[in-house]
Amino acid sequence: MTNGRLLRWLRPWVFPVVLVGAFEWYARRAAALGSDALAPPSAAAKALAGAAIDGSLWTATGFTLGTAALGLLLGAVLGIALGVALGLSRRAAQLGSVSIEVLRPVPSVALIPLAMLGFGFGVRMELAIVAFATFWPLLVLVQAAVQQVEPRLLEVSRVLGLSARERAFKIVLPAIVPRLFVALRLGVAVALVVAVTVEIAANPNGMGYAMMIAQQSFDPALMLAWLGWIGIVGFAVNAGMLMLQRVVSRRMGVPS
Amino acid sequence: MIAAPAPLTARAALQPGAYHAPAGTAAQAVPFLRFDGVTIRLGGREILSPTSFDVARGEFVCIVGPSGCGKTTLLRAASGLVTASAGEVRRNGVKMTEPSREVAFVFQDYGRALLPWRTVEGNVSLALEAAGVPAAQRAPRIADVLGKVGLAKHAHKFPVQLSGGMQQRAQIARCLAQKPELMMMDEPFGALDALTRQSLQDELARLVREDGLTVLFVTHDLEEAIYLGDRVIALQANPGPGRPSLARMIDVKIPRPRDQLSTKEHPEYLHLRRELFAFIEQGHD
């Protein structure tokens, strides 16, 4: 029994360990042949520890996560509000459909020049782009979720005489919570990707910029350290969201 | 179109249900609830052909008929959930255009009508929140209605943790919390097993008597209609052009309180049962 459980727990780690081992072997061989483009994972881990000790790891991670979270908050609040409105009113959905379909496919990175003109380098530009990028998936998914709210519940709200505000906050929003979490998890992933992208391309702050600096100063170990760290941070954030989703579902009496 | 059912209206006015409070002269002039040529067309199809009848305050009216005859639609029109294509529903002389807190609606699919994320207590509370009852006054009122429907011990459970019968009790409790004067019930016990149904029928009859409620009760179960009703209204499907959906109106003069054994052996019950069954079968060929 215990052995079986241990095996089940270990199995997902087999492939990463093998991969890292193979990479270690390959990078060491490349280094022995005189290449400085690659660094073995052991060197990357050392570089990561160094960044953790001198504090640059935490500053950059905090900046990227903070900006991504704030941008997501902005995008999500606007996206959820508009999604609920468009989901409840067919007329509003028709009014907005063309604008949404034209604006939604614009790649968020394509907004960097515009955002730079408007906000200059720094937090505000990154916030604006993250908000823009997360706004669309939330809008579209929330609108679909609202349209699928049990019609009987909306009738109940009419018969009980709930106001439009009460209907939104007491019926519609709680009813879409499971789908809202799916949308939010997607939004978190988008926010992180876009934040790092903006930092690589334009904003001299955060994890993306730190990785660029490491690359430009021919420090492949540190660059790989950042790359691996970004992956770990993304994994941790997603796991946190899953846990939050489970807690909320349980509290709302919805078996997850 | 409205002329055809007029005699029925007159008959209903002359024969109010036998078990409601005596109506004063003013109440007789303005019936509590009046269906006046109510017609509903949806997507080019006439769901309900011109239907007229009156309901007196405190009366328990059961509506029966084959599926597709417009029973549920009639109820939805009476509560303002759908608007009549022609004719009107007047409550206390005022035309009903939209749902009102004085009219409660018990849906058949209790599983969908309860908020799954709220406990029984929370679901009942919703009616009070909608009515603007201050938070401090809600708890005693919730406890009161839950006591009435026998759910006092289950106040903190979520709907998924309850049996079908208990979920329907929770929905009825929420409707009672509205303090309605009129309760619409759309096949409320249709999905329940026979024993649960019988006990809920008896409890409903008791609640209605205690609170002096007026009830419109749709059912496909003729025995249930006779057992519960002061009057049974039978609708017919596709009555033909210009003819009313309302096919038959029967007064149930069986004394109250009724009970599952002796009432169902009462000669009047057996007589009405035979009459109604014969009528419905006739309508089917």
Concise summary:
The complex is a heterodimer of chains A (256) and B (285). By secondary structure, chain A is mainly alpha-helical.
Protein traits:
heterodimer; A: 256 residues; mainly alpha; MetI-like fold; 0% strand; B: 285 residues; alpha/beta; six-stranded mixed β-sheet; four-stranded antiparallel β-sheet; globular; disordered N terminus
Describe the structure.
The complex is a heterodimer of chains A (256) and B (285). With 256 residues, chain A is mainly α. Chain A has two domains: 1-31; 40-251, MetI-like fold (Orthogonal Bundle), CATH 1.10.3720.10. In chain A, helix 3 packs antiparallel against helix 8 and helix 3 crosses helix 9 (206-216). In chain A, 84% of the residues lie in helices and 0% in strands. Chain A is globular, with a radius of gyration of 23 Å. Chain B is of the alpha/beta class. In chain B, the strands form two sheets. In chain B, strands 6-7-8-3-9-10 form a six-stranded mixed sheet, sandwiched between helices. A four-stranded antiparallel sheet of chain B has the order 2-1-4-5. In chain B, helix 5 (120-130) packs across helix 6. The longest helix of chain B has 18 residues, at 194-211.
Beta strands of chain A, count = 0
CATH topology-level name of the largest domain in chain A: MetI-like fold
- The helix tally of chain B amounts to 10
H and E string of chain A: HHHHHHHHHH
Q: SSE order of chain B in H/E notation?
A: HHEEEHEEEHHHHEHEHEEH
Distance between the termini of chain B: 25 Å
**What's the mean pLDDT score of chain A?**
90
Question: What's the number of structural domains of chain A?
Answer: 2
Largest sheet of chain A: none
| Beta fraction of chain A | under 5%
**Overall average pLDDT of chain B:** 86
In helices, the fraction of residues of chain B equals 25-40%
Which pair of chains has the greatest number of interface residues, and how are they split between the two chains?
A-B, 22 and 28 residues
| General shape of chain A | globular
Strand count, sense and closure of the main sheet of chain B? Answer: 6 strands, mixed
